[in-house]
């Protein structure tokens, strides 16, 4: 791993900042072996675009297809572990008093790695709820031919994620808008910045004068507005940054 050097003023800013917000996307989980949202489809699912499956319309049209897609993705998540990028964010939470981790990811890997203050803007694929009465299901019969039903009301079970066209959980969204408004430093990590309203958070932070740092494998529409852009893998860059700021 090349020895990354970080601009001195960024290192000293991170040493003294108390309010840091980080927004993460699928790129942070890529090195855990989870394909990013845009290239998540393979095998049976290759023929579908994720946006066409992750919607209430798709679920209404073919509940079993959508249920099976999420069952396949739950299995994929079961097999993966947090990577060094996730663990670096746990280190950052330990060292920065008012750190908040806002994630678009539904894989639960940030909490698994040990982050406590996590806002899951798009839900969590491991949680399953009733599509009618919102009761959470702890267990369900995965194996049979049709979509499992709610024990309370008989409604169809669904993953507890936010589909395209659905509103984000109010309290998570409000807390993340507030975090973007008051932070001194805003990190955007492993996200293409395509999906709204999550992607508006970095712009809001920039507009209120926060220092914006982007870590991503490719440039994005946010890049021109950032104060620092590190191109590469978050699982390599974040641990190096933690070392440069806090470990010596
Ligand atoms: C809503 C859960 C409306 C489901 C997801 C305003 C403007 C424009 C559009 C809209 C808007 N408001 C609403 C919309 C429509 C829509 C939208 O944004 N569409 C997009 C396609 C344009 N938004 C919505 O529908 C949202 N709802 O706003 O409600 C409303 C309002 C009022 C009343 C009623 C309704 C809901 C959006 C949530 C959708 N659900 N997930 C599921 O997962 O199945 S979003 C889904 O896509 C993922 O969860 C993920 O969050 C997102 C993908 O984005 P990324 O995380 O950025 O992933 P991506 O693959 O794109 O990028 C990865 C990046 O990482 C890449 O840049 C890559 O280079 C980089 N990378 C790869 N490897 C690495 C790496 N970087 C570093 N290291 C590496 N190793
Ligand atoms: Zn129900």
Q: What is the structure about, briefly put?
A:
It contains ten helices and nine strands. It is α/β, with parallel strands linked by helices and 248 residues long.
Mind sketching the topology for me?
Elements: H1 8-16, E1 19-24, H2 27-30, H3 50-53, H4 56-61, H5 63-78, H6 84-95, E2 98-103, H7 109-113, E3 118-120, E4 123-130, E5 136-137, E6 157-161, H8 170-182, E7 185-189, H9 200-207, E8 211-216, E9 228-231, H10 234-246
Parallel strand pairs: 1-2, 1-7, 2-3, 7-8, 8-9
Antiparallel strand pairs: 4-5, 4-6
Helix pairs in contact: 1-10, 6-10, 8-9
The structure holds ligand BV8 and zinc ion.
Structure description:
- The strands form two sheets. The protein has a six-stranded parallel beta sheet, with helices on both faces. It has a three-stranded antiparallel beta sheet with strand order 5-4-6, with helices on one face.
- It folds into two domains: 147 residues, Rossmann fold, CATH 3.40.50; 80 residues, SIR2/SIRT2 'Small Domain' (2-Layer Sandwich).
- With 248 residues, it is of the alpha/beta class.
- The protein has ten helices and nine strands.
- The model has no long low-confidence stretch (mean pLDDT 94).
- The structure holds ligand BV8 and zinc ion (ZN).
């Amino acid at each position: 791993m090349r020895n990354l050097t970080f601009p001195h003023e960024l290192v000293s800013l991170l040493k003294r900042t108390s309010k840091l917000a980080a927004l993460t996307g699928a790129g942070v989980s890529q090195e855990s072996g989870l394909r990013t949202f845009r290239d998540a489809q393979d095998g049976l699912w290759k023929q579908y675009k994720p946006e066409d499956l992750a919607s209430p319309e798709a679920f209404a049209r073919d509940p079993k297809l959508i249920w099976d897609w999420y069952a396949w993705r739950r299995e994929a998540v079961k097999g993966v572990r947090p990577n060094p990028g996730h663990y670096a964010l746990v280190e950052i939470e330990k060292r920065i008093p008012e750190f908040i981790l806002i994630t678009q990811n539904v894989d639960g890997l940030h909490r698994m790695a040990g982050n406590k203050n996590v806002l899951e803007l798009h839900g969590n694929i491991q949680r399953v709820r009733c599509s009618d009465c919102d009761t959470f299901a702890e267990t369900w019969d995965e194996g049979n031919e049709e979509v499992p039903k709610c024990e309370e009301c008989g409604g169809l079970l669904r993953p507890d994620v936010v589909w395209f066209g659905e509103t984000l959980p109010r309290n998570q969204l409000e807390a993340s808008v507030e975090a973007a408004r008051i932070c001194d430093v805003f990190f955007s990590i492993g996200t293409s910045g395509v999906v709204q309203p999550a992607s508006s958070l970095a712009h809001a932070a920039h507009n209120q004068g926060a220092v914006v740092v982007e870590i991503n494998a490719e440039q994005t529409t946010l890049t021109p507005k950032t104060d620092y852009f590190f191109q590469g893998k978050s699982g390599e860059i974040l641990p190096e940054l933690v070392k440069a700021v806090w470990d010596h």
